[in-house]
User: Fold these one by one.
Assistant:
Number 1:
Amino acid sequence: MNTIVPQARQWPIYLAEAHCELLRVLRTPAFLVPSLVFPLLSFLMFGVLLGHGQASRYLLASYTVFGAMAPGLFGFGVGLALDRERGLLTLKRALPAPPAAWLLARVAMAMLVAGTIAALLLALAWLFGKVALVPTQVIVLLALGMFAAVPFCAIGLLIGSVMPASGAPAVVNLLYLVMAVLSGLWMPLSMLPPVFSTLAPVWPAWHLGQLAQQAVGLPAHGAAWVHVAVVLAIAALCLWLAQRRLRRD
Amino acid sequence: MSLASAPALARLEGVHKSFGSRPALRGVDLAVEAGTAVALLGGNGAGKTTSISLLLGLLRPDRGQALLSGRPASDRRARQEVGVMLQATGLPDMLRVRELLELTRRYYPAPRSVADCVALAGLEDILHRRYGQLSGGQQRRVQFALAICGRPRLLFLDEPTTGLDIEARRSLWQAIGEMVGDGCGVLLTTHYLEEAEALANRVVVLQDGAVVACGGTEELRSRVARARVGCLTALAAADIAAWPGVQAVAADGARLDITVDAPEAIVARLLSADPTLSGLEVRRAGLAEAFLDLTQHKEAA
């Protein structure tokens, strides 16, 4: 006979985990402020003051994707490496917590920050940039901003599961900036040597950028479903590699 | 199933575990029953943390079984009855003690109230402070509170008082003692033998991944049937060392420290040989001597 062990109710755990993660994000201005300010200020500078018309529209779309990169990459890449080194991850695994709870909480917070950035960009574009979007375009771009955080969470998870806490920030920063530029998030790839346009499809940010351009009614490469499929495949691969690595710890 | 054959709260059965080619555990058996505290002793690399990791389901045994109440330790439901305090845990600095407590309580089906946890772990003054602002000792108290907040039937404490001052250590000992008194099983690793002596009913000594001794603390101490006799005497250390029943003599000025098998005969002989002898002191071998004796004996073999 096995004694029947009662289970704690599961959904309050997910909520509590998300609540703690939210508090953690709000109380870490060193993470939150640059994540918000960097894309917003860049958009004001290049999309509103220096750019007009189509340029504003282009940059609204691409900075929405850019804004979704930091929360996932830094939150997971740097945060996880730190938590792993400090033994928090081991403790979470030793506790009877559902293993996915903290992961989902963190992804949800990254999506929330990315969504906030997308909303603020849309507000700036509407107020100062004179970018006219129909309501469905606004909704699709907002949703895309939040969805875009997911693959970067997965990439961050992989970096955080492999790199030591001392090395993770450098790798994340490098990847963050290089991928943003080479995916055409800062300027159209047509302004760079053609080799970069050829290489662009290796970056998940490029696929998301194309989706964002389509969302605001600009011409873009490829079919939407292909971009979504590629991004999800990259995310799944990173997640699989990361959990393999984490299980070995 | 009768109560007598109820499975132990935690049990390792013939567990082997290697990391690469390096064996960490070689056929370890271990059991923790309700209402008892078992101390796992051993030097660095003896296999203490590996044993705990196996019972927490963090590692899987290569051979043998790691069981919690008869279930595999890797089953998350089995861990619903387990509280844990690991060696090094950096909890999120930005969260307040109360928030950490509220979160961890939710993992368990019938948790203690926050007020109970606060009282047991002595968190009255720090409940609303952020974890990152606490001293090392306060952080350790928070970790203890998280370990007991789920009303566990079994507690794993990996070096619970390392880095604590005497007062903090004693109050933690008291709290652990209360848990054991309430019927909780405790598996404890420690470097401090006095800690094992203060808390544990049973001691398991690990060396190079194998159990070299296990038993009650008393039993283990008595297995090393030694005592130490200290005194101030005019007798020469070298003469006493030649007496039968004397293991060793150490001199510190006029004070001698004599290790003996049975103290009674030696004390009588000392007093008749030197009537001016003073400062007589007889101490039974502590767990520390027993531990050294056991592990050194094994090394020599």
Number 2:
Amino acid sequence: MKVTLIKIFKALDTLDRRIIFVFIALAVIIPLEFPVNFDFSVTAPVRGFYDTIDSLPSGSKVLVSCDYDPGSMPELYPMNLSVLQQLFKKNVKVICMQLWPAGSPIAERALNQVGIEEYHKKYGEDFVNLGFKEGREVVMVSMGNNIPQTFPRDYHGNKVEEIPVMHGVTNFKDLAMIINISGGMPGTKEWVLQVQSRFHIRLASGCTAVSAPEFYPYFQSGQLVGLLGGMKGAAEYEKLVGVQGLGRRGMDAQSVSHLVVFLFIIVGNIAYFALGGKKKRLNV
Amino acid sequence: MISTELIGIWVSAVLTLLIFSFLYKDNPFYKFAEHLFVGISAGYGVALEYHNVFLPNLWRPLNDVSIPLANRLPLLLPFVFGLLLFTRFFEKISWLSRWSLALIIGIFAGIAIIGYGSGDLVLQIHANLLPIWTDKWLTSFNNLLLTVGLITSLIYFFFSKEHKGAFGATARVGIWFLMISFGASFGYTVMSRMSLLIGRVYFLLGEWLGILK
């Protein structure tokens, strides 16, 4: 029995990493193909995000900064769609912009998909895409003084001052809140440090899971009114908004794949210590 | 009739599989996809910056005769500083590029310091000054945990005194808090990477093969 166990542990110790890849692939494919719909609760940061938008009066204007690129689309695009769905459902006017060069076509696609196709909103009257502007924090600070001067033309080349939805919008004081969908830098941290702390405007963030731990202190301090962390945050938010997007669909695969990683860590550690741990290996 | 959308989906799917082939082992197909990605990204970036930054912010206003000359002349300053950046390609005058870099670093450092000072330092310290005794025991426990974690972690980073005795024990508690935070960060990183894989698999099974229910 003991010899058999040692053999198993030795096999695990020298396990080909490609076998682990196969297990992870199956842990992702099977739940996507055969969804179980694991239940999950909504956390306070996501609730804060939803409630803040829900409290906005109809017709108010919100700035949505889509600061990400295709590299983080699986995490951020679902929440981008859900955010637009809640905003358009509430008849809130959307002013969209990007600080990442590759973010413009993605934001344009999301606005067309939700704004025009789903909610039949009119470009220029109900929403506008100001497009990409180079300058990172400088753009943010400049917008605090004058938004039309910072973005003289929109994504399609129209003069911003002539676009109806931009009438009466000079700087952040004319906006109800800012929503940042953040794939990295510049993103939520810069919006918090350069805009929220200076201009004291309500700021909510949807970010990748890898950067979420860095931003939770901002929610705890009240600098962020809400935070969607990665696909889990997107799934919770989709649950509140009442849509079935990639966030919710991906949660089964997320849970099962995490379980597989968890099991491999446990089994790997058992095998490691059963074979003598670091000391024995060094002696060998 | 083959639509451009369909071609796009097939190109995207094939390139995804070429990249995934690295999971088996490094191979020429992976290398091809990798080089293609790097080349296209660089080309896209240059074209985008040229059309979205250089032309509308500098070149067009500089050549627009409807704008008064007094308003156009200041644009020559960023134009010259921009050109100086390219002196890095010429060894003898490459030092000139430092002027432009100094300007860029100076502006960004100035803006960042103000933001970090007001947004991170002051507000985060303020947010951590929490009451230990409250009406709710759970809130009190959370506040106490945060305070202990904050103090012990700060003590760990205090290197002017040797980590021995009571001071060392407190620093070790700080290490535990730091390890837990690293674990949480690692968990979130795993979730982030899994999300990317899920996104690609969802695309392959759904949009490409159309076998997702």
Number 3:
Amino acid sequence: MREGPVVGAEEGPGDRSSDATPGAGAARPKEPRQRRGTLAQQEARAGLALLSPTLVVVLVMVVLPILWTIVIAFQELRLRNLRTRLFDFEFTIKNFDNVLTSPGFLDALKVTLIYSIVGTVLSIGLGLIAALVVRKPFRGRTLVRASMLLPYVAPVVAVTFVWQIMLNPQLGIVNAIGTDLLGWQDPIPFLEQRTGTLSIFGLDLGVPMALIVVILYQAWRYFPFSFLFILARLQALPGELDEAARVDGATPLQRFWRITLPQLKGVIALLTVLRFIWTFNEFDDIYLLTQGGAGTEVVSVRVFHYLTGRGDIGAAAALSLVLALLLVVLLFLYFRFFVGRVEEADAI
Amino acid sequence: MSRTDVDTGVADRPKTPKATAGRPARPKPPLSREVVETRILGVLKWITIAFFVAATVFPFYYMVELSIRSIEDVALDPGALWPPRGASLAAFGEVLRSVDDGGQGFLVFLKNSGLIAVTSVIVTLVVSILGAYAISRLQFFGRRQVHFLFLAVYLFPAILLAIPLFVFFTRIGLRGSLFGLILVYTSQIVPVTIHMLRNYFDTVPESLEEAAALDGAGRLTIIRRVALPLAMPAIMATSLFVFMIAWNEFLFALLFLVENRENWTVSLGLSQLAGSVEVAKTTLMAGSVILTLPIIVLFFATERLLVEGLTSGAEKG
């Protein structure tokens, strides 16, 4: 994916200079003296001019705020002393100390990691399966594909509320089916229960119920994204390899493992990175489902609680920086140890 | 699940031999691995499709179903999947009516959400068309770095950005205004839309623009008269994408607007509604339908365009 645009950028200038030369020649007689510099300089100026609104917006609303967060993280800034202390540049590392040693921080870290890793794997796995089953055309495929995208395009507030009500112990359909048809003794408060018991063969296992539900929800809501990209890639695959393998007597499963899956490696690697980043930083879904209760408090929800609950802006900034740094470290490890190998394998 | 598996398997089996028997080249193959796998996968495929469609569509069906039932009815029979009697649109009336009339005032929220989404689309488009055109067509210093910077922005969690923006807008007194929120949305979405539009501009041949340049057209005229019409499909897809993001957004709306009820968006209004005890869950579902419906209609009307716009370039892998 990233290779594509870069290659294009290398080829661009060559094309352009050869094409642009006659244009420049034709334009020359019109302009008596070249006050405005060469064509290349003009182009550079025009490029920056056209890009300037974007640059201003992104610099002012994204880059500066990120830098400012770093400053705030070292200030003792609270909501109530915002007016007086904002430009009071006494720096301290107290925020980091507070945030990192506070009870619950390590739990939040653990929950964030479990949530992002399992959520990423599940959403990509489901996306892959969904893409494989609708790969070949059939009647009504467009409708099936569109309906599979619904969870992803629908507003987060609406879908979290539907899930809440579906799982509600008194009113929800899941518990109604569970108690009426499946013989559950009591309704299960899926989103309020930190530890649920799962009976398998007479064994009662304690499972982190709310966390599991939140992860399943996230797989449900975000598999369409993987589905979309894997399907696009699947449909662009050349058919010859698959056909050749079929002629050679490879069974459908063999063809999937040996022919199709290796060709999807690139898009899956890309999706892994994107989904991991987004799941790791996820806030809306968990906040709306559980408010971070019942053992589902991920770091970003914790940041929000520092910000609005306690009004401790400094601590919120410090914790959000910790979150961002951690992500950078994890991504670095991923690229260092996994992607290198994938690319080597692709080269062969 | 396993039960349906067996049933469908049995039901489908009689068909398969007929199909294979029709082919002359393979006279009744023994149950080779190929045949077994093809049959099992053929059945599994339809079960999987049915499972996915049910899992994705059911919650939305359930949302609509609850919104037209009364809360007493739901409490009596939570498992009912078909509104038997007394189905009514009363909940919608309650949600949409203004607060003075004893409703929840969602009509105003709809207006706010629409205003925010449409303005975000316009501002984002203007900014990102210019930017994407520059990155795609023009040579200038820092072109590639800019692109990388935009993508790097996405590493940072929204909640990290929310903190300084919250402080900043509180301090300058713009928190609670729709204007501030639109600015935030634009800045958050522009990096993606630039990427989408740039991919498209890259596929449009430059020769037409060069012809226009030879005829004496200036840079902005070329963009407006030549590049824009050619890029219309991508621009439509991008607009829809921006509209959906702005319409659905929750975190910044919550942080910026929560104290200012007349400026609430539908998402925010609905989430605040959920907090109060006296609001029935069926009313909540009516609100959810109102929030979801515009997006679903828009999505089904433009599905192909949107999907192609989102995944353009993904085929390259």
